[in-house]
Design a protein that fits this description.
By secondary structure, the protein is mostly helical. It has one domain (5-397): Ammonium transporter fold. It is 68% helix and 0% strand. It has 14 helices and no strands. The radius of gyration is 20 Å and the shape is globular. The N and C termini lie far apart (56 Å).
């Protein structure tokens, strides 16, 4: 088949943008932790690029997008990318190579478990994290990709998720919360971010990459690609300013970290809805994201949950409300391939979205907690108080970010 060079070029660019989000996440998280723990948290993102790529090539793509077993997982027909020719097209209309789709989806697989690491910063041993990374991909991420995007049970049921509200943010956020509960609070307190400029750099890279994340999920260039791009920026901007205003009113000073965190909350929340809602709806989704995620983080702090970098409050809550709000604001006038939400008479669609994201969140939480118990039986998951005091960069890696 002759490939559409415009679509193929765009998808290669979108794939590169999503890849850039993982280093962006490393900078974002690295700036938020203390000076003695920068390299550890950044390495957890970068090592996912290697481990997840190997796993995706070996079995991941096949388990997500080849065949179907019980509506839950694929098969191994495409393991090691066997059976995929360089001339195979992904779809008749978009006409991009299957290998481009393989690479694009691989970038999603890389960043999703890396999101979780912000919750257990300063506490987890590297060996335990590597085991966590592999098992979580195999038993949480890959099944949900198949169920939502690979022809599985949730897709058959009519659940929509444009770019990963369920598949990426909700399940990663709930896995983060399970990790916090299992590992417990840090023994050594840190006094705020050690480098806000690093946080800003990371946010900029994430925001930039998110255009590939959301607009690229159309898998071709058309009007839906454009609206997903615009909606991404609108939601992020409104969420950032909403967070800024609420926090400013609360503590009487406009905080840069709050502005940046609000932007990421908006990006996470619009992700499932980006290609299914109007720009006006994206504005409301952004405002709701800024307010609700701020309140979730405040509640976490009040309850003394040591989710160090607010993964649950930003990604877990953001992804969850994004999926539910898609059930409210979706419109076939915007995307005929989507659905009508609650505002347009789609009551059943709203309940499907809500049930799907709640069910996915419960599964991700329970499996992650049990998985950590099992991992801890074989290798200690948590560093000691003495090691925490020295800093995990030196203790675990024998390296220091700063002399």
């Amino acid at each position: 088949m002759d490939f559409n060079t415009g679509n193929t070029g765009f998808m290669l660019l979108a794939t590169s943008l999503v890849m850039l989000m993982t280093p962006g996440l490393a900078f974002f998280y690295g700036g938020l932790v203390g000076r003695k723990n920068v390299l550890s948290i950044m390495m957890q993102s970068f090592v996912s690029m290697g481990i997840t790529t190997i796993l995706w090539f070996a079995v991941g793509y096949s388990l997500c997008f080849s065949g179907d077993i019980g509506g839950v997982i694929g098969n191994l027909d495409n393991a090691f990318l066997q059976g995929i020719s360089i001339t195979d097209a992904f779809s008749a209309d978009g006409r991009i190579p299957v290998l481009v789709f393989v690479a694009y989806q691989m970038m999603f697989a890389i960043i999703t478990p890396a999101l979780i690491t912000g919750a257990f910063t300063n506490r987890i041993r590297f060996k335990a994290y590597l085991i966590f990374l592999v098992l979580w991909l195999l038993f949480v991420y890959f099944p949900f990709v198949h169920m939502v995007w690979g022809g599985g049970i949730l897709q058959q049921w009519g659940v929509l998720d444009f770019a990963g509200g369920i598949v990426v943010h909700a399940i990663a956020g709930m896995a983060a919360l399970a990790s916090v509960f299992f590992l417990g609070n840090r023994k050594v307190s840190e006094h705020g971010p050690h480098s806000i400029p690093l946080v800003a750099l990371g946010t900029g890279l994430l925001w930039f990459g998110w255009y590939g994340f959301n607009a690229g999920s159309e898998l071709k260039v058309d009007s839906i690609t454009a609206i997903a791009f615009v909606n991404t920026d609108i939601a992020a901007s409104f969420a950032a300013i909403t967070w800024l205003i609420i926090e400013w009113n609360h503590i009487k000073k406009p905080k840069f970290v709050g502005l940046l965190t609000g932007a990421v909350a908006g990006l996470a929340t619009i992700t499932p809805a980006a290609g299914f809602v109007s720009p006006v709806s994206a504005m409301f989704i952004g405002i709701i994201a800024g307010a609700v995620c701020y309140l979730a983080v405040a509640m976490k702090n009040k309850l003394n949950w040591d989710d160090a970098l607010d993964v649950w409050g930003v990604h877990g809550v953001g992804g969850t409300i994004g999926v539910i709000l898609l059930g409210v604001f979706a419109s076939t006038a915007v995307n005929p391939g989507g659905a009508d939400g609650l505002l347009y008479g789609g009551g059943m669609f709203f309940w499907k979205q809500t049930a799907a994201v709640i069910g996915a969140s419960i599964y991700a939480f329970i499996f992650t907690y049990v998985m950590l118990i099992v991992i801890n039986k074989f290798t200690p998951a948590r560093v000691s108080k003495e090691e925490e005091e020295l800093g995990v960069d030196e203790v675990l890696h024998g390296e220091n970010a700063y002399l």
